[in-house]
């Protein structure tokens, strides 16, 4: 579905994407994980055939986006980071009008709108104006709009940014159902739990480069430990606390609000820290996540 080699994107003298290699297979859920400014959105715009490449090679659905952009765009769906719904139209009219842009008949457009409203659970809101919807409902409508042309591949740029946890899980459920239907999903996110939940495979991007690639569980096993102990100390106490526990794990990280001990046995490490007289405000033992992978690879937290 996607094959990129040495892909680059520059804006004047600024290089946003610095020679990345990406291959995505049919039916796969593939993610670009990284902080804001990592180059994820620039990569997605090239994949969507709306932004020309600055170097390297790129094939989408086996086609050259520089030559076959229109054909590619007719076969993919795009859910942009910002909702761009028509606020002068109702929920139902947004879908009908957008479906007509692809050359479908009015009858087909109406039937497709009904089908998609049912899919994203907005049938009861069909006659409401867009401005009357909640943020989560607008996001679901934007996803529905990206499906009007029955795309083979769906591109989602930060699909749940700004949504509350309940709304995020509703969107995740819809994306999972699309994957079961055989739609290839390609998404960018800076939420590590979203990447773990949705992606079969992902790349971690930082500063326009790919710094790691693999399935979520593979990356965690490769770059982190089984468990992590979080010690939340008082203001100004983290550095001193880290020195006292640096031998209790494979490595220790100091963040502004906590000390992280990476170890195979979190309970044992937490007990050892207490035996040394440490009195953190709170102690948490958890499994490693993709955020720990990113911290290991880049030296900063994923939400930085």
Estimate what percentage of residues fall within beta strands: 25-35%
What gap, in angstroms, lies between the N and C termini? 31 Å
**Gross geometry:** globular
Biggest beta-sheet profile: 6 strands, mixed
- CATH level-1 class of the largest domain: Alpha Beta
GO cellular component, one term: plasma membrane
Protein name: ABC transporter ATP-binding protein
InterPro entries: AAA+_ATPase, ABC_transporter-like_ATP-bd, ABC_transporter-like_CS, ABC_transporter_ATP-binding, P-loop_NTPase
Membrane topology: Peripheral membrane protein
Structural account:
- This protein is of the alpha/beta class and 304 residues long.
- It has helices at 40-47, 65-75, 91-101, 106-119, 135-145, 165-180, 192-198, 216-223, 238-245, 266-275, 290-298; strands at residues 2-11, 14-24, 29-33, 55-60, 76-79, 153-157, 184-189, 201-206, 209-214, 227-232, 251-254, 259-263, 282-287.
- It has a six-stranded mixed β-sheet, sandwiched between helices. It has a four-stranded antiparallel β-sheet with strand order 11-12-10-13, with helices on one face. The protein has a three-stranded antiparallel β-sheet with strand order 2-1-4, with helices on one face.
- The longest helix is centred in the middle third of the chain and has 16 residues, at 165-180.
- One of its GO terms (molecular function) is ATP binding.
- It is a peripheral membrane protein.
């Amino acid at each position: 579905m996607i094959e990129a080699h040495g892909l680059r994107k520059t804006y004047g003298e600024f290089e946003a994407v610095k020679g990345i290699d990406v291959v995505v297979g049919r039916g796969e859920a593939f993610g670009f994980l990284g902080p804001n400014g990592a180059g994820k959105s620039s990569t997605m715009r090239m994949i969507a055939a709306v932004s020309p490449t600055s170097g390297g090679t790129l094939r989408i659905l086996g086609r050259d986006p520089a030559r076959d952009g229109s054909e590619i765009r007719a076969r993919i769906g795009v859910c942009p980071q910002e909702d761009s719904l028509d606020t002068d139209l109702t929920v139902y009219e947004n879908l009908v009008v957008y479906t007509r842009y692809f050359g479908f008949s009015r009858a087909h457009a109406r039937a497709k709108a009904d089908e998609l409203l049912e899919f994203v659970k907005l049938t009861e809101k069909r006659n409401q104006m867009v401005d009357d919807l909640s943020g989560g409902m607008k996001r679901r409508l934007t996803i529905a709009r990206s499906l009007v042309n029955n795309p083979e591949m769906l591109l989602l740029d930060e699909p749940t940014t700004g949504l509350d946890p309940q709304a995020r899980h509703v969107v995740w459920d819809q994306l999972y159902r699309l994957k079961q239907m055989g739609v290839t999903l390609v998404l960018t996110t800076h939420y590590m739990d979203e990447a773990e939940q949705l992606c079969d495979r992902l790349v971690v991007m930082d500063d326009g480069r790919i710094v790691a690639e693999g399935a979520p569980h593979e990356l965690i096993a490769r770059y982190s430990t089984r468990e992590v102990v979080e010690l939340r100390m008082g203001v100004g106490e983290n550095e001193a606390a880290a020195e006292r526990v640096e031998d209790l794990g494979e490595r220790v990280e100091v963040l502004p609000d906590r000390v992280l001990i990476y170890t195979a046995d979190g309970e044992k490490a937490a007990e050892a820290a207490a035996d040394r007289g440490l009195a953190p405000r709170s102690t948490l033992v958890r499994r490693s996540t993709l955020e720990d992978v990113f911290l290991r690879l880049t030296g900063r937290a994923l939400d930085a």
